[in-house]
Amino acid sequence: MVGAPIAPHPAAIAPKETFVLNLGPQHPATHGVLRIKMTMDGEYVDRAEPVCGYIHRMHEKMGENRTYAQFLPNTGRIDYLSAMHYTHAFVSVVERAAGIQVPPRAEFIRVITSELNRISSHLVWWGAFLLDLGGFTPLLYAFEDRERILDLLEGITGARLTYCYYRFGGLCNDVDDTFLEGTRQFIAKMRPRLKMYRALVTDNIILRKRLIGIGPISAELCRRYGATGPVLRGSGVTYDVRKAEPYSVYPELEFDVPTFPEGDSMARYLVRMEELAQSLRIIEQALGKLPSGPVMAEKVPRVLKLPAGDFCFAVEAARGRFMVRVVSDNKEVPYRVKLRTPCLSNLSLFEEASRGLFLADALALLGSLDLVIPDIDR
Amino acid sequence: MNETVPNPAPPLQAVDYRLKGYHLEAMVAPDQVVPAARAMDEQGFSLDTITGVDWLAQEQMEVVYDYFHPARGLRTVVRARIPRDQPEIPTISGVFPGANWHERETHDFFGIRFLEHPDLSPFLLPEDADFHPLRKDYTA
Amino acid sequence: MNALASNAAAFLDAEPWRLLVWLAALLGFVALNAAYLVWVERKSAGRFQRRPGPTEVGPAGLLQPVADGLKLMAKQLVVPAGADSALFRAAPLMVIAPVLMGLAVIPFGRGLAALDLNVGLLMIFALGSINVMAIMLGAWASRNKYSLMAAGRMVSQNIAYEIPMLLVVTTMAMVTGTLDLNQIVAQQAGAFWHWNLFRLWVNPLMPVTFLIYYACMLAETNRAPFDMAEAESELVAGAYTEYAGMGFGVFFMAEYANIVLGCSLATVLFLGGWHSPFGLLPGLAWFLLKMYFLVFSVIWVRWTFPRTQFYVLLNLSWKILIPVSLLTLILSAAIIKIPKALS
Amino acid sequence: MNALNEIYSGFNSLLVGLRITLGQFFKPGVTVHYPRQTLKIPRRYRGHIELVANPETGKPLCFACKLCERACPSDCISLEGVKLEGDKRKTVASYQLDFTKCSLCGSCVEVCRDGAIRFSRDYNLAGVAKEAFCMDLVQRLREQLAAATPEAPSPKRQAQPEIPHPRFSPALARARNDAPPAAVPGPAATVAAARMTPAFGAGSMDALLPRLGPPATGRAALPDAHCVGAKQGEGSIP
Prior knowledge:
The complex is a heterotetramer of chains A (378), B (140), C (343) and D (238).
Chain A: H1 10-13, E1 19-23, E2 35-41, E3 44-51, H2 59-64, H3 68-75, H4 83-98, H5 104-132, H6 137-157, E4 166-167, E5 170-171, H7 177-202, H8 205-211, H9 219-225, H10 230-233, H11 241-244, H12 265-289, E6 309-317, E7 320-328, E8 336-340, H13 342-348, H14 350-353, H15 359-368, H16 373-377
Antiparallel strand pairs in A: 1-2, 2-3, 4-5, 6-7, 7-8
Helix pairs in contact in A: 3-4, 4-5, 5-6, 5-12, 5-15, 6-7, 7-12
Chain B: E1 13-14, H1 17-20, E2 24-28, H2 33-42, E3 46-55, E4 60-68, E5 75-83, E6 88-90, H3 99-110, E7 113-115
Parallel strand pairs in B: 2-5, 6-7
Antiparallel strand pairs in B: 1-2, 3-4, 4-5
Chain C: H1 2-13, H2 15-48, H3 64-74, H4 85-104, H5 120-141, H6 145-176, H7 181-187, H8 206-220, H9 232-235, H10 245-270, H11 283-302, H12 310-342
Helix pairs in contact in C: 2-3, 2-4, 2-10, 3-10, 4-5, 4-10, 5-6, 6-8, 6-12, 8-10, 8-12, 10-11
C-alpha cells in the first residue's frame, strides 16, 4: 500500500487486442437497467459507451396529455429517490407562471421535507456505492437511518417514496407535532451516526485506496458536458442551484456549499458526506424559523391555465440541477413539458472520463456519479 | 462573434428572471446556432439541455438550447426555428460534447436531424424506432 | 462379542482402513462445516447488520443449509454452449479434493490426525496450489468473459500471495526446526506464552508474521476484502458465473473448507494447536475453539471492509508483505544462528 | 518513515472499522419480522380508495358527481350513478377502480368535496390475475358493511381510528381466501373485513369473474380480458 496507484500507462493501451464486455442491462454495478458497452483491453477500459432507454417511459409526452395537476404524480417518479425536489420544481414553475404566492409556512416545510429527502437520497447512494465497492454492511446502516426519514415523511404524506406532497400554492396538508418532534430527534440521532460513518468507511484505508486519485473529472470536463450537483462540486466548482438561482426560502437559511477541488471519486464522495451535515443544518434552522399560518395559497384557481409562453424552474435535486421547462399555449394542459435531469448530463461524461481506467476503477467512477437510471431515461 | 459579455453575437435580450426562469434569450437563424454555442463556450457557459418544440400550426419546429453559467448563475436560452417539413439544423456537439446525447434525444422525439452529428441512432427509444412521439401529429 | 469388537477395532486401526475411515470422517467434517459455516456466516452477517438472518427454516434457521443444499442438488447442471464440458465439470472436484487431503495432516488433538506425516506442512502447500489451478480451469472452461477476467486475476493474486505465505511458513519451520505438524504443536506446550505467536524471543516480529499469514490466508482463500475471483459488483460472480446447482455448491463448499484448513493451520503454527492456556476442556475442544475464533474473524473482516482493487492487492503483496516476511525470515535465522556461532 | 506511518494509520483504520462492526454485532436488531410483526400504519397512509358509507343510512355518501373520475391522471376510475325515486341527488350504482393503473396519487380523494371516498388501509395486496385488481367499490362497501358491526365506519377520514393490524396467523390467511368470517364486534373487525374483501383472495376469483359482465366474445374469463369489460356489466348491478 505504498506509493501511488498504478496509473494506466499509455503504452499499456497501445497495442490493442480488445474484446467487448456488455455490462448490463442486468449487472450488479449498474443499479437498474443501464447497459454499458465496454471495449476492454484486458482489465483496462478502452471505450465505455452507455446505452440508455431501457426504462424510458416518456414522461414528457404524458405531460402533454394531462392537466398540470394530473402531471404532478409523475414528477415523483422521474428520480424516485429525490421525489420532493422534482415535485418542488414542477409546482414552482406553475406557481411562477400563474403568479401564485406560496405562504411562508408552506415554503419552510417544503425546504424541510426536501432536505430530508436529500439526506435519504444520499444515504441510499452511500450504501449502494459501498456495495459497488464490495462492502455490504454500510448499506444496511444507511437504510436504518433512511428508514427514520421515510417514517417521518410517510407520517405527513402517506407515502414512503413517491410523496406527491406539494401542491400548486402550497402543500396538500400541514405537518403535525409528531413530525416536527420526530425531525428534531432525527437530527440529534443522525449527527453521531455521521461520525460513525466516517470512522467505519471514510477513514478506512481500503476505501481511500479505492477512491483517492481514481476517475478524475476536471471542472472543464464537467462544464463541457453540463455535469452538475456533487459531480461538479467534487471538481471544485461552487455551483449549487440553491445559491446560483435562489428559490424558496433558501436565501433565509445559512448553509455552505461543500466543494472539493481534487475531482476524483473521493472528492465526490466527500461532497455528499458533507452535504448530509449541511442538510441537517438547514433543517435545524428551518425548524427554528418555521412560521405559523396557512400552508395553502388562498387564490388557486380550480382550473389552472397558464399564460402563453415558456417558463423554466430549476432546483438543486440530490443529483444536481433539475429543470422543468413548461411551454404553455393558455390551455388546461401544457403544450410541452421538458424535464432536464441531472443524471443524463452526469453520465454523458462517463465515456470520456473512464477511458484507460481499470474495470474496477471505472465502476468506482460510475458509482461516484450517483446515477438513478429512470432519471436518465425518463 | 468577437464581442464580449454584455452583447455577444446572438442578439441577447434580457428577460424577467422572476417570471421566466432565465435571464437572457435570443432567437437566432438556424445556421447561427454553432457560432452562438461557440460564443457561449467562450463566455464559460455550460450546456444545460437541448430540446425541441413542435409548432404544428406554424409548420415550424423550434430547437431550444439552454445554457447556464456555473460561476455566475446566469441562464441563457437560445432558440432557432426550422421548417417542419425539413427539420435540419447543424449540430453543436463539436462545441459542447455534452450536446451529443441531448441532440440524439431531440432527434428521437421530434425527428430533427442534426447535421454532422456523430451518431443519431435512437437514444431513449427502441433501436429500431422510426417514429417521433413528441411531434404533435403523432398518435400511438 | 467383545472379541469381535476388538477385532474390528484392530482391523480399522490397520493402515489403509484407518486412513479411509479418517478421510470419510473428514469429508463429513468438511461438509458439515461448509453447510453450517454458511449458516454462521449468514447469521453473523445479520448480527453485524442489525437484522436476524435466516429464521424461517427450522429453529433459528438451523435447517437453512439443508434446504439450500437440497435446492442446489435439485438444480440442473448447465454447461454453457461452447464450453469445455469435461474441464467445466472436473473443476469443482479438483477444487475440493486438495483441501480434503490437506486436512488429513492437521492434528486436531494429541495424536488425532489422519496421517502423521513428518512433512505435513510441505504436503499442505504442495496440494494447496492445485486449488488455484482448478478454479482457473473452471473459469476458462466456462467460456465467459467475466470468468476469464476473474481467472486472470486469480492466478496473479495467488502467485503474489503464495510467496509471502511460504516465506512465513519457512520462518516457522526454521523456528520450530521441523515440518511435522504434530511436533510443531508439541513444542508449544505449556501456558500461552509458549505459543509461537508470543515467542518473541525467537523472533520479535512474530505477531507481524502472524498478520502476514492471516492476510495471505484471506487472499489464498479468495475471501473479502481480497475476493477478486468473485467480485460480484464487478464481475457478476467472477469465476463461478456460469456454474449452477451443485457445481456452484461444491465451489462454495471448497471456499469454506479452505477457510477451515487455513485457520486450522494458523492454529497449529501460531496458537498452540490443541494446547489449552489453562487446563479445563480436552485438547480437541481447545483446537476447535481457536480455529473457529479465527473463522469468525474471517467472517467479521468480510462484513466490515470494502473490496480492494486488484492492483492494490498486488502492490500490498509485492511491496509490503514480501519484504516484511523476508525480513522476519532473516531475523529468525540470525537469532537462531548467531548465538550458536558465538558459543 | 512516512511509509511506515501510512501503514500504521492504515492498519489502525482497519481496527477501528472492526471495532465498530463488533459493537453493532451486540446491539439488538432493528428490523421488523414481517409478516409475524407489522408496523402501525400511519394515519395518512395512501392505500387504494374505498367508498364511505353514510353512518345513518348505510348507503354510500357518493352521489356520482364524477369529479374524481375527471381528476384521475391514469383513468382508473369509472363510475355511474342512478337517480332513485324520491331522492334529490343521484346515488352511485357502480364504482369501478382499475387498481392496475392507479398510481396512488390521491387526487381523487382530494377533489371529493363530501368525503365520500377515502384511502383504505389495505397494504398487502397480491393477486394471481389482473382482474383481481379491478374492483367494484360499491360491492366492496356492501361486503364491508355486511361483515362489520351495525355502526358503520365514520365518514370522516380524520376520525378513522388508528388500528394496528392483526398479527399474522395462518388461520387468518386462510380465512382471507375463503368467505369472510362471522362478524366480530369492535373496530378491529372492520379492518379485518376490509382486508378480507373477496377481491384479493385467491379463492375469490370465481366470485369476481361473473361480475365482469356478459362476456361479449366469451373471452372475459381469460387473463387478458381487461377491466374495461367491467363497464359492460354495469347493468347487472342494482
